[in-house]
Amino acid sequence: MACEKGEGDVVLLDFWASPFGQRVRIALAEKGVAYEYREEDLANKSRMLLEMNPVHKKIPVLVHGGKPVCESLIIVQYIDEVWAHPNPLLPTEPYPRARARFWADFIDKKIYDCGTRLWKLKGEALQEAKKEMICILKLLEGELGDKKYFGGDAFGFVDVALVPFTSWFYTYETSAGFSVEEECPKLAAWAKRCAEERESVRKTLYDPQKIYEFVGLLKKKFGVE
């Protein structure tokens, strides 16, 4: 499929449950970019994936005009630059732009790692991971404040970075015994608002129960009971 703007075809190498790949899908949807989706078997990676991301050998990879772009936040920024309109994701002014990048980087470094520990660990280690996750979410809620989205009235870069993890919240909550809605009501309301008001989010995210079932398979794979 050809993209609406820009040169060359657009191909996305991805895996359905990946919150990092979902970032890219949401960004492409926000921009109205048509693309070819190629689902990867992460246990048997395709030759194309290995050739297009020889350093990390991971999804997602956006291939635009035969040229690969890797790492989800870099891909989202690339999409925002190549298809600048509609729906710009990053602010135009340097300071708010830097601030958005800071929080997206914070999400990248914190959420996935801590969330993985929630379903892998037990006992005291699990309780420590739970405390850390609640702290992370509260910091994000503090940045959100009373705004509609992280950037204000417009859905943007930080929202794209974080919203895929909301479909994982049920798994985190069930694994560690806490409630995002109780701990961070504004953040929970933001997640609901994104799903209800952004078609890009609604059509990309999977049912939390399906994610929970997928994590159950991962537990078996890693011998986590």
UniProtKB/TrEMBL annotation:
Segment forming the signal sequence: none
Protein name (Swiss-Prot/TrEMBL): Probable glutathione S-transferase GSTU1
GO biological process, one term: glutathione metabolic process
Catalytic activity: RX + glutathione = an S-substituted glutathione + a halide anion + H(+)
EC number: 2.5.1.18
GO CC annotations on file: cytoplasm
UniProt similarity note: Belongs to the GST superfamily.
Superkingdom classification of source: Eukaryota
Protein's job: Conjugation of reduced glutathione to a wide number of exogenous and endogenous hydrophobic electrophiles.
This protein's record includes keyword Transferase: yes
MF terms in GO: glutathione transferase activity
Upper taxonomic lineage: Eukaryota, Viridiplantae, Streptophyta, Embryophyta, Tracheophyta
Stored SUPFAM superfamilies: GST C-terminal domain-like, Thioredoxin-like
Occurrences of domain GST C-terminal (ranges): 93-214
GST N-terminal domain location: 8-87
Top EC group: transferase
Keywords on record: Transferase
InterPro entries: Glutathione-S-Trfase_C-like (IPR010987), Glutathione-S-Trfase_C_sf (IPR036282), Glutathione_S-Trfase (IPR040079), Glutathione_S-Trfase_N (IPR004045), GST_C (IPR004046), GST_C_Tau (IPR045074), Omega/Tau-like (IPR045073), Thioredoxin-like_sf (IPR036249)
